[in-house]
Amino acid sequence: MTSAESSLPRRADEGGRHGRHRRGGRRRGEQLMVPKAEFQSYYGRPVIKPPSWEARDIAGYFFLGGLAGGGSVLAAGAHLTGRASTAKAMKVSSLAAVSLSAAALVHDLGVPSRFYNMLRVAKPTSPMSVGSWLLAAYGPAAGAAAATAVTGRLPRTGALATGAAALLGPALASYTAVLAADTAVPAWHGVHRELPYLFVASATAASAGMALAVGPTRENAPARWAAGLAAVADVAVSQAAERRLGMVAQTWREGRAGTLLKTAKALTVGGAVTAAVLGRRSRIAAVAAGAALLAGSACTRFGVFAAGTASAEDPKYTVVPQRERLEAAKAKAETAATAAETEKG
Amino acid sequence: MTDVTDGTGPAGPPSTLASGGRGVPDGMDPHSGRERVGFFTDTSVCIGCKACEVACKEWNAIPEDGMSLTGMSYDNTGALGASTWRHVAFVEQTRPAPEGRTELPLLGGRSGAGTASGGGEPQGAGVPGGATAQETVEGGSGGDIRWLMSSDVCKHCTHAACLDVCPTGALFRTEFGTVVVQEDVCNGCGYCVPACPYGVIEQRPDDGRAFKCTMCYDRLGAGQEPACAKACPTESIQFGPLDELRARAALRVDQLHEAGVTEARLYGEDPEDGVGGDGAFFLLLDEPEVYGLPPDPVVTTRDLPAMWKHAGVAALSLLGACGAAFVAAAVTGNTGRGRG
Ligand code: SF4
Ligand code: SF4
């Protein structure tokens, strides 16, 4: 933890400059003498503010949104292919998940009674605004799908609602990645291309896990396949994300985030393998695999959340990549200038 | 009622990148046709008196937010936040051998600008208001402690991430080109907090809503300058039309360079930078990160179109993967209707 270190009283010329290397002599046209990953800061204080969100509320919201959204797709597939009990169970699960996720979102507001202000405007530049509208459209669809499945009434309305929820569900599962990435948080913004794929993989794993846990084994073949695809995607995308992050990837590998993300991988892969090998024959194995997949997905969300917080709390992750970007731009400009000169001469 | 806007509250013009606009053009506020105003904080003349902090707290009736000692030089304020809208940073630097570096005499500098004379032995830079650039010389000739003081504030970015991501429209662009939170609209979602690339805006713990510098919106409305600029005794904080301030700042940097202060540089003045230029920009005497400022901030919403694209593709791949799972199940002979 950096804050323990940085809260110590000390002078800027000591601790405030981690690994400081004053460039000697002239500042203009100087050689690049600052070794990588050395950086200066103001008493080790964070440059940006970490999100004030509660992990339980917002990482929980990411998880539940994924579970609901992915679940609606599996429910629709089960509905279409006549896997009636899985379809019903998944519709109920999605309704429960989306209700809980909305509750988590409202709970996290500084002024919960003003939740309705979210629907005051529609702003494509605000993923939270887009998400609120998405939730407002998806929630009723998921509710109608579940209600009709449970009561057995209005089957045509139920089919329509199931279809609508299945179309909106994937958006609900992936937009939360944009919600996180559309910030100045280095561990999130840095992977703004990869995060949506990680989040849908995680959502697929969670909903496949739920389907394995609540559906009868004779209906669970699609869930087993989905779990396998999700696990492969989860591992591949995580690796791509860490590669993209460069030095910021430390926040994904170390500390609480590292533990959570490693656990997530183990649970997700373990769950998918268990489902593939034993999930068809053994109800107990299917339930265990499902539980592992659900837990793995939750760990992914809480892990990514923790990585974001860690990357915001240490100025290193803000300063070093920006410095490198500046130095790279400078080097490029200099090369271009030299090239132009050579051409002339 | 739903008011469909593209990024601003009721009073503001469209702000931002993703909405197609290019933010506020230099100088003019496109909606109101008024001149865009801002701050130029010239840290080379800041004496660290904190009059700006006090004036801000007083005028805006900002609550107390901690009285602890930080151990960070004379800075017991710590950082900008919900209840700190001006923050004076104090940096004490021990500098090694004076080879090639600038040294300003403690009481020099009445000689006016740009008159560096005598073989690279620079004069103190003359400043408006008569204060001097601060270089404390300790023990005779070998001055090795340098103070940097800087009054930080919300940058009122041209492309303001806080405003872009605010889902309620509480944050809006005023007719002066500044960025302000409407306290009666904010629902405390906290999205603006991690979105700001400078770590400025914050929620008040007991209140839940987000607060930050308004550039004294009320005073601007009455034709007054903001309280901090009014209170600053050295004109380190200068308020005015942004164009004018930029011109003045460019002159000031030249003046300092001529006087041998080669480390003087402007921060946030460039309309081509990652946030389209700051409405509140600075003259610094060291790298931005030494003052706790990000060296190359970029408005996060610059990448939002790419993010939405990837999210769309990801959503479709979720649909596709689940579809494929059902097809695979059918192909491998499990229709779900068998005996299992
Ligand atoms: S500095 Fe931060 S709070 Fe101020 S306008 Fe820019 S993004 Fe918003
Ligand atoms: S906390 Fe308030 S000002 Fe900040 S984004 Fe949310 S509604 Fe907007």
UniProtKB/TrEMBL annotation, chain A:
It is a multi-pass membrane protein. InterPro entries: Electron_transfer_protein, NrfD-like. It is found in: Cell membrane. Keywords: Cell membrane, Membrane, Transmembrane, Transmembrane helix. Residues 1-31 are annotated as: Disordered. Gene3D superfamilies: Formate dehydrogenase/DMSO reductase domain. The keyword tRNA processing does not apply. Its main location: membrane. The chain crosses the membrane at residues 58-80, 92-110, 130-150, 157-177, 197-215. Residues 8-17 have a biased composition (Basic and acidic residues). Pfam families: NrfD. Belongs to the NrfD family. This is Polysulfide reductase NrfD. It comes from Streptomyces griseoaurantiacus.
